[in-house]
Every structure is written in structure tokens, then in C-alpha cells.
């Protein structure tokens, strides 16, 4: 999606308010706090950080040792506008990347909604490289688009080539020393609505009512009351049902083994 400047602009404008991003950022923060409590002297890498919404959110909460990487010059420029430490890098070449700071390893590596741009072979390499960058006992937190049934013009607009189920990711983990600690699909409650919207988008594409060359993504801010309602619904779902078996996103927290000799952390 590197050439889709309009999508980065939309992301930059809405990611601090749109319910979906707010829920995702909250989930990442909760995973970090569950592992590290109130410690915020953590080194955090956001691989494929987009326009920097998560990194700004974490900075506002006292996490100052953050680093972002993204392959898009536009995304990186938006991050720099926010004063974030972000470099332009194609994650296919992550193995050759040296952070400016002395150590290569991070307490937390986040990689949200990026796996869909990689085929299995590339993704296997990306996951091992991300895992190598996680300190022993540290976390890889990753959110990804889930279930093919949710495919719609949004996928076309953001250039996403695939959707995942948990097993697609877990079968690439052996050898990475990462183990699943938490996983859930989300949002179960909003699934029927999202499904209906995506099917409607597909119908429009088939009928030529929406151009396949210029498809619309779902990244836009609905009216305030609706945004607040969706946020409240999904927050309630999270609290009442911490794990749900279905939804358009898959959130996973993977922990790296504490040391070389132990097989399980
Ligand atoms: C859907 S956006 C997600 C952005 C951000 N992680 C978030 O949660 O808002 C996908 C991001 O991955 C980046 N990306 C895709 N393929 C990449 C690659 N090979 N190397 C680096 N970044 C890549 C895109 O530029 C884009 O910013």
C-alpha cells in the first residue's frame, strides 16, 4: 500500500478518535501492562507503525523509548510530524536493520495489521526476525485481519492480500521461541454488522457501483454518537468476554522464552 497516500492521510486524521484504533491501542497497552505492570522504561518497537497512532498513544502514557519502522515514506513523514522516532524500512529487509541505540533487542515488539502484505515464506522470515528482536521473556503483540468472509473493498483499498485464522500464524512459530499467551478474535458483537457492510461492498464492486481501481476503505470517522456507541459496545465485550471465537480481527500476544535452555517460558 506504499503508494496510497490518501489512505495514510485518512489514517493520520482519524486514528486517535476512531473506535477501532482506540480499542486496538487499548488492547496493546493492556498486554504490555499485564506483562510489565506500571514499568514504562521499556524499549518498544512498532514494526509497520503506519502514521504513528499507537506510538503517540504510548508516548502519552509515559513510554518514551519507542521506535517505529514503516516502508512508506508518506507514513514516516506523518510520524515525524508527530515528533516520533521512526525510520523508513521495508520489513522484508528487517534482518539488516540496526537501531541507532546500542541494543538490538526490545521488551515489546508490536506488529499490527502488517502480516497481510506477506506471503507465507516472507511471513515466516518476518516472524523469526521480529522474534529475534524481542528480549528473552519479552512480547510480540500482533493484531491481524481475520476470516476470509470479512473480505471487502476495504481489503482492496489498503492492498491487503490475505486474512488469517490463529492456526495460520501459529504454524509459523516453531523455531521462533515464541509461545502464544493470549489470543482472541474481535469484535464478536459487531461481526454481523461488519459482515453486512463487507458483503454490501462486494455487491457494489460486482455491480460496478464502486470502482475496483479506487475502492473505499473503512477508515473514516462515523458520527460522534455512533463512534462512541461502537467503542462502548466493544469495550463491554472485551470486559465480559475476554476471548471470543469470531470477529474481523485476530489479536495475539506471544511471549519469548526466558532463556535459551528453557523450552517453555
Ligand atoms: C494497515 S496499516 C497498519 C499500520 C499500523 N500498524 C496500525 O495499526 O495502524 C499497514 C502498514 O504496514 C506498512 N507495510 C506494509 N508492508 C510493509 C513492508 N513490507 N515493510 C514495511 N512496512 C510495510 C504500510 O506502509 C502500512 O503503514
From TrEMBL:
One of its GO terms (biological process) is methylation. SUPFAM superfamilies: S-adenosyl-L-methionine-dependent methyltransferases (SSF53335). InterPro entries: Methyltransf_25, SAM-dependent_MTases_sf. The keyword Protein biosynthesis does not apply. Coiled coil: none annotated. Pfam families: Methyltransf_25. GO terms for molecular function: methyltransferase activity. Keywords: Methyltransferase, S-adenosyl-L-methionine, Transferase. Gene3D superfamilies: Vaccinia Virus protein VP39. Residues 44-138 form the Methyltransferase domain. This is Methyltransferase domain-containing protein. It comes from Rudanella paleaurantiibacter. The lineage of its organism: Bacteria, Pseudomonadati, Bacteroidota, Cytophagia, Cytophagales.
